[in-house]
Amino acid sequence: MKAILRSRAYRVLALETSCDDCCAAVIHRRQAAPPVLESHVKFTLNSVKAGGIIPTDALEHHLGTIPRTVQDAIAESRALAGPEWQLDLICATQGPGFFSSLAAGMQFAKGMAVALNVPFVPVHHMLGHLLTPRFFSGSLSFPFNSLLVSGGHTMLVHSRGLREHEILVNTIDISVGNSLDKCARSLGMKGNMLGRELHLFVGERDQISAADKSRYDEHFTMALDGYKKRVKAFSFAHYATLMQKLRSKSGREMSDVPLSERRAIGAAIEDSMFYHILQKLKLAFEDRPDVRDLPLVVSGGVAANTRLKKLLKEQIGGQVVYSDPKWCTDNALMIGWAGIELYESGFMAGADSLNASLDAIPRTSWPLTEL
Ligand code: ZN
After folding, report:
1. Over the stretch 54-74, which tens digit does the pLDDT of each residue have?
2. For residue 7, is pLDDT > 70?
3. What is the 45 CA–ligand 1 centroid distance (Å)?
4. Ligand 1 mean position to 366 CA, how many Å?
5. 6 Cα: distance to centroid of ligand 1 (angstroms)
6. I need a labelling partner for 230 at 20 to 30 A (CA). Which of 35, 126, 355, 361 fits?
């Protein structure tokens, strides 16, 4: 397998299929100029009817969708680049994620790498999220901290280098995005990105009755106080129980609660979860004053939430950098960029390691600390 000559510009195709998003991207890595995203194509499995993501459905989605996703991404990039177009590197997510979903993407990518005789780089999904801001801003250098808040993850990470990551706070159960989705569903919402729907549903907070809000704040504050104040971990699973308690206390289904009150409930849920995140961030930085003043990169689907943004600005201060909301959810740009960084750091220096990467198999769980 031939390695890329690092002295020239090259083109990368990346696939992300760790969960229910089937994504492909083409990035043009230029010399002495910022990289260019030439195309990005994404097809998300519709899980509305199923009420959640079912791994076998996700696999079927990927098997049926990957070829045309890649085809579309290539066509778009080709049209942009002209006759000089060629692919020099292929990347795909290796984990963590659903085994079958990862396998579908990886095998397709490996097949392409073999057919084109170009290197294949397997990429850690979370590393992709962590490095995304560096694609857009060449000035963000190590070390920095990241708060990853999405449907799959909730963690505070301190990064010293490409492969040196320390998880300062992680969730002990489910992610904030997952919990927001579950609460939104209990409130009667339907759709794919329920956490986002919930945020839109809550709307302007000054339109919400203060009495309602404080009543529900009190209900959900139990969750905040209940989870041991000095424990450096996030926890969001108990919100499902709190929703259930609310239902039995009121003696009615949430869908029967008046709209204005449901908005107050939504606002109280968001605030409770976000204050919990802030509390744990403060706790982590109290223990680690050496990393406290570093830039904080906020990414993941929940990072686009304007309420969380406002609270972080008010309560954490310092330099807070946001990933563009478009690139906060799972995508292939992040995998392509992380693949480029890995490749250029000498990840695959010789012909042996180029071939060895073809032996890589999906890793359903893969701690960020084991890169
Ligand atoms: Zn993700």
Report:
1. 899 999 999 999 999 999 999
2. no
3. 15
4. 13
5. 29
6. 126
